[in-house]
Design a protein that fits this description.
This protein is mostly helical and about 60 residues long. It has one domain. It contains two helices and no strands. The longest helix is centred in the N-terminal third of the chain and has 24 residues. The radius of gyration is 14 Å and the shape is elongated. The chain starts with a helix and ends in a 6-residue tail after the last helix.
Length: about 60
Amino acid sequence: MKKRISRILGLIMLIIAIAFIVFALNHPEMSFPWNNTITWLLYGLYILVTVMLLIAPKTKK
């Protein structure tokens, strides 16, 4: 994947995450229909992918 595309995808994912956090803080009555463990695993995976997309273009081969 090219550096530019990777950074754009990483930034889009970061913006979506920030929008989700703002939405979640304003709507505490909403929740996911599954266990909190699954929710935290999904959050961790999302953060990992976002960080990899933002950092990977900066590393040299």
